[in-house]
Write the structure tokens for this entry.
Amino acid sequence: MAWTIPDKGEGDNDIQSIVFQEYLDILAAGLSAGTNRNDCVLSGCAITGGIDMTPAVAKGAVLSNGTLFAIAAADVTIGTADATNPRIDLIVVTSAGALAVRAGTAAAAPKPPVRTANDVVLGVVYVPANDTSIETTKITDLRVFPHRPIPLYVQTTQRTQNNSVAGVSLFSNTTGLVIPSGLFLSGKVLRVRTGGNVLHNTTTAMTITVIISYGGTTIYQMGTLSYGTTADADRTPWYLNFDLIAAGNALQRLVGQWMNGPTTMATPPTTGIGSIALDEVMGQSGIGSATAGIAVDSDAANRTMNITFTMSSANASHEWACDYMTVELL
């Protein structure tokens, strides 16, 4: 259950049934996260109380200011209760991806504290005067799960690589996208779109090997992108489009398409910008799971999805560029 305000008589105190403006702002921020990539919960992060002042937060995943964070299960500590008045605290994930408690001010009629910028609020804690334990009944669930698709990653800064035979990730962090444990489970799909161009302005032959991996397992590899021995200063476009499908928590399949332009552009554009393939296509191949798929348990640990390019020869005139990438959760 998410973002549920208890009715009068349902919580420990009727103060918990008050709908504060802060709660409505939290709801609005979460519901708009699918379009503006702001602050919301993607999975898990439920809060459970106990016999002391350290409620437990379950593992999960959040977006804070559009950045994806994996949240490990952990306890948080609620500060010492006031001797006279109750208090309302917020349990949040900060913009740095850390669990934190935003303490309110004790008062006869307390209000929740103001959030710090890009806090993802998980819940509200009612702290009575002289309280020594935070039971689950004192916790109000304020997690907001937006509608899918949710953009997990957007990259528009161009990445380039040349004069190298090292396998290099297309992701800007060079290590791939960490998919938090429990997020990519049965019935969900990761939709990936990426593209760019290749320069082959030398008579030294070159091939590019493309590898898509998930959880350290290669799910797709193609090493037949041959650029021959003809030098050409024109850049040729490439485009990779695929869906990674969670047929089960530990069963993934892949379907998509790879396209790249000819080794020599017969009619490069004379006006404007862009990498658009022409009628002649050097490589255009469908991507599909020829077998049952791969078996990576997405609920047991965080898993990394990666796309790497490897050039067969090191030359300053051999260069690939990745102009953009998007990863969405469907």
In short: The chain has two helices and 22 strands. Residues 21-31 form the longest helix (11 residues). The longest strand covers residues 232-248.
